[in-house]
Amino acid sequence: MHILAVNPGSTSTKIAVYEDETPRLVSNIRHSVEELSKFPRVVDQFEFRKNLVLEALEANGIPFRFDAIVGRGGLLKPIPGGVYEVNDAMLNDISHAMRSHACNLGCVIAAELAALLPGCRAFIADPGVVDELDETARITGSPLMPRITIWHALNQRAIARRYAAERNIRYEDLNLIICHLGGGISVGTHLRGRAVDVNNALDGEGPFSPERAGTLPAGQLIDLCYSGRFTKEELKKRISGSAGLAAHLGTTDIPAIEKRIESGDEHAELVLNAMIYQIAKCVGAAAVVLYGKIDAILLTGGMAHSEYITSRLKERISFLAPVHVYPGEDELEALALNALGALRGELAVQVYR
Prior knowledge:
This protein has 13 helices and 12 strands. The chain is α/β, with parallel strands linked by helices. The chain has 2 domains: 2-127 and 331-351, ATPase, nucleotide binding domain (Nucleotidyltransferase, domain 5); 153-325, 2-Layer Sandwich (Nucleotidyltransferase, domain 5), CATH 3.30.420. The longest helix is centred in the last third of the chain and has 24 residues, at 266-289.
C-alpha cells in the first residue's frame, strides 16, 4: 500500500510517503512569514500548499501513485476519535469552520489530490476536535459555556499505542495521563481507550504554554474586554498566539530561555517554573478523574526534549504513577498508519455527518 500523509501547520507543511509501514520520504516544507503574508486567510493558502506537496514529490522522484492520501484533521465539529473518509459534509463544514488554523487544509488537500488518482481514498484521523468527554466533565458553572475539547488527539493516541505496544498491552486496557507539551499544551485523561477528560488547548483552558494563555481569571478577562484598550482580534491573540511564554518573555524558544536562566535571569526562571507548576496541577487533576488508578503518565511534544522541564515535572508528579518521556511528535507516522489500518480493514472507517 502506498500512502501520502499531509500535515499542514502554522509555518510548515509536513509530508510523508509510506510503503506499508516503511517511510520512503519524510519532508518538512517550511513557509516564511513573507510567503504566508500574501494570503489574507488561511484557506487562501490551499493552492500554494498543494502545489508545494506535488513539487516535493517530484523533486524526490516519488511517483504520484497512491492508494490513500491522509490529511491532518481540521477544526470540525466535535466527533469521536478514529479514521474518517473525507466526504462532502466534511468539506462543507471545514469551509465554514469557526476557528481558523492551517490544519483545516489537511482534508481539502487530501481530497483534491486523491481525486486525481483512480481508486485512491482520502482520509483524516483523530483530528484535534475529537470529543469523548464524560458528560460530567462537560458541565461548567454556566449553561452558556459547556466545556469543549481542542487537543493533540493524533499524537496523544499515537504515543499511547506506542507505549502499549512496547509492553504488549492493548491501549484499550490502560489508564493513562498524557501531556502533549508543544506550542499549546493538552493534558488528556485516557480511560481504557477513551479520552474522557482533556482541556481546550487552543483558546483558553489548562496550563499556559509557550504561546497560549490557558485558564485566565474570568472577571479580569471581562474587564479587559470592555477596557477599550484592545480590539477583539488583539485580545484573541493575547489568548492564543501572543500569550504564555511569548507574552512574559518575548520568546517561545525553550533552549534560549534555559540559557537566560543559566545566565541568572530570575524572571525567566520564575515564569518557566510557573508553567511547569501549572502542567503538574493539571496532571494532578487528571489523577482524580481516574480515581488514582493510573498505569503511566506519558510526556510528549517538542518541549519533552527539555530535561529542565521533564525533570521538574517528574519531581512533582512521579508519586502518582511511572513517568515516561517520548520527545517530539509522531503525527505523520500516526496519519500513515491510521490510513494503512483503514485500507487493510483493521480499523473501522467512520462516516462524517
